[in-house]
User: Fold this.
Amino acid sequence: MTNVSGIVKSARNIMRQDTGTGSDELRILQLGWMLFLKIFSDKDEELELLDDSYRSPIPAELRWVEWAGDDEGMTGDELLQFVDRKLFPALSNIDLSTGNRRAVLVHEVFANNYNYMKSGIHLRQVINKLNKIDFNSSKDLHLFGQIYETFLSELQSAGTLGEFYTPRAITQFMTEMVAPKQGETVLDPACGTGGFITAVIEHLKASASSVAEREAIGHNVRGWEYKPLPYMLANTNLILHDIITPSIQFGDSLQRPLSEYSRKDRVDVIIANPPFGGVVSNNNENNFPQSYRTKESADLFLILMMHLMKDGGRAAIVLPDGSLTGDGVKQRIRQKLLEDCNLHTIVRLPNSVFQPYASVATNLLFFTKGEPTKNIWYYEHKLPEGYKAYSKTKPIQLAEFDTLKQWWVKREESDQAWQVDIDSIKVNGYNLDIKNPHRTEEEQQHSSAELLNMLGKSFAKSDELLAQLRKELGA
Assistant:
């Protein structure tokens, strides 16, 4: 059996020796386009065998098997020049006149990426490692799926790339609770590397009873992403999940005026972890009605998502505490949410769920459009026994949600669950940041200790970044 984990590890070790891929971020970018092309080409071979009429959009001499498939093939400067001067220019300018979605995907991936490696010998060594993985073998694919999960989670430690990863337990739990059905359109307007989309695809595959239903999944489950790396990784992720033509749109979700969306753009289900703490660029806030304009990305995404839902549509989204409180625009956005939608459940998560790259307190919001909120159920998800915080080595697990799933069906007040009526929320300025009334003073103090601990870590991280900046500036 192929040691997929060992292969990926070896490839990354080779890249560490190359002057062009000296950081985690650059190694991920490099492995990203190589894995995309290898997986895309492997799937093309499979499609050509299954369907006589299928034609790959990639010209024959540029397919992985032609220039990279032979371990004794070109290497050194010849290989480097081929990749830099032939492969990238040709795939960036691939013929799009046929309207082939797979051609568009190849164009977008290669027009927005580079070959970072400087040594053709190192590049050949990495290629030879990847050639050992057969992406058409179900065993290799299953193993690689697990490696890919780890690979994506490692984005957390690669600086700014960390914003794209939501723990798998969260994506699976939210998908189960919002329960997309066959034939429904599902959208993640900030899809990152495709964690929510793949969770939805697996959920729908499990209940698909015909070939037509399975084929419809790829069209009905959609994502939007505007950064080249996560866009490429999301598409690779979907191809690995047997989606021949992923429905992922490349572009900024906030750049289109809200008024331009018509009835046909509306969807049945939205599931997302919109970027938060970010400042909106290109004056995109001007695409929104005057009373909801803000530079805070999470708040604009909330307005966009409400707008894109059909009446009766369901949503499950991640929002930070900062979006649950605040005056002015923030308050008006929350008021709109509560008047246009039934915000029936808020799950409050421990601060460390998104460690190590974010220590903000987050919440899972579940709502249905088309009826106003009368009561909101809150549920506080507690850390497992003996845990002080989640970490990279001890992430949140799906099994931890078992008691919450049982409670979901038959809701009752408890030390973890409480209900608040809409009148109390209105009186309180539509503030949704409502603490657990059943927590003891001792637990509240423990929470403060947690916050101090996190603040200390945050200062340490700031000092580290400042030191790095001084070093780079030669100060």
Q: What stands out?
A: The CA atoms of residues 126 and 237 lie 20 Å apart. The chain has two domains: 4-153, 158-437. The radius of gyration is 24 Å. The chain has a mean pLDDT of 87.
